[in-house]
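Dear support,

I submitted the protein below through the web form. The confirmation email said the job was done, but the results page showed an empty box. After a refresh the structure appeared. I'm attaching both so you can tell me whether what I see now is the final result or a partial one.
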Amino acid sequence: MQELNRKIQPVYSNIEKIDIIKANKNRLSNNIPLYTINAGSQDAVKIDFIFTAGVWYQNAPIISSTTNSLINEGTKNLSSKQIAEKLDYYGAILQLNIDNDFGIVSFICLNKHLNSVFPIIEDLLKNSIFQQKELDINITNKKQRFVTNCLKTSIIAQRKFLEVNFGKDHPYSNKINIEDFDKIKQNQIIDFYNKFYTSQNCRIIASGKIKDSFYDLINSHFGGNDWEKSYDKKQLTYEIASSQQRKYVEQKEDAVQSTIRIGKILFNRNNSDFSGMQVLNTVLGGYFGSRLMSNIREDKGYSYGIQSFLTSFQNSGYFSIVSEVKSEASKNAVNEIFKEIKKLKDELIPEAELEIVKNYMMGDLINYFDGPFALSESFRVLINNNLSYEYFETYIDTVKNITAEKLNQLANKYFQEETFYNVIAGKYE
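What the results page shows now:
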C-alpha cells in the first residue's frame, strides 16, 4: 500500500455543473398537487404535506404553532399514545414544522410500511380533535420556555430586531407577550385547523424510492373530498411599519455577553439581486473564513463567532448580522462590523478571495441536492416561493460568474449605514 504523503496538497477541480433530479408533477383526484422525486437507493420515502398555515395566517399570537404541534396529540380514532406507539412500531418518523408562512406535516418510513402508516397520517390530517388537556399541557410548556427565553440576550435582541424592522403588529415580527398564552382557547385551535389544514390548501412532495403503486395508494387516502372543511383562500396583506429610530440598546446589567443584531429589511428570493447578494453576504459573514469572522473572532477576539444572513419569507425578507460578544467589547465590535461593511463599498474584493468564496459556495450547493430528501427540501423552496428550477440555474450561474465590480455595486446599493437597524441586548460599553 502506498503511504499517504501529507506534504502534497490533494488535487482538486472546480465544480462546473450540478445535475439536479427534478420533481414530476401530478394531481390527486381532488386536485391536490403531488410532486414526486424518484431518487436514492434506500427503500424509503419522505412525504411532506405543506399548508399555507404559518404565522402570517393566524388571527392571534401562538395559534399557528400550537395547532401544528398538537396535530399528533389525539384524533377521533386514536389517542396520542396510540399514535406514538403505532408510528414507533413501523419505524416511521413524524415531523411537525411551522414557520412564518407554512405549516408542514412530514413523515419518513420504509415503502413496505406505507400501507400501515398512511392511515395514521390520514387520521391526523382529517380527524385531530385538540383535547383541552393536551392543549393545557402544550401551552404550559410553551409559556415556561417563553419565560426562560426572555432572559436570554439572543432572544431579546432577535425579538426587538424584528419588531423595529417590521412593526410590532406585523406577522413577521411575531410579537408575543406573556399574557397571550392565557388567552388561547380550544375553539381557536380547532377553527385554525379546520380552516387551513384542508385538501384545498395542501401540496404534497414525495421523495425517495417511489414505487409504481405509490400514486394509487396516496390517492386512496388523500384524493377524496372528505377533508375540504371550511377553507376560504384570501390574500392577506399587512403593512410594514418600520421604526424611525435606528439604534436600540436593551440593557441587561448582569449579562456576561451582549448580543448584536444589525440589519435591515431587504427582499426575498424572487428579487433578481438575491443571488448576487448571497455571494456578497458569504464574503462578509456567510462562512467560517468570512471577513467578519476573521476580524471579530480571529483578529480581535471579541466573540466565538459571527455570521450574516439573508432571510427569505414568502412576502418579504431581511439581511442581518448576528453575534454574541464580550460585553466590554460590544461597542468596539459594532464599529468593526461597520468598518467591514464600508470596505465592501469602498474597495473591490480581491480576485483570490472571491475565487475561494465561489468555490466554497459551489461545494456547499452540492449538499442541497445530495440525496432524495435534500432534493425535496430544495424543491420545497421553489414551490413555496412560486419559483421554477430556473432559479437554481440562475443562482449557479451567478456564483460562478459574478464579478468584484458587480458585488461592489450591490454593496453600495444596499449597504448604506444609515439604513441599518442596530440592536444590542446586554451591556453596550
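Response: this is the final, complete result; the empty box was a page-load delay. The chain is about 40% helix and 20% strand.
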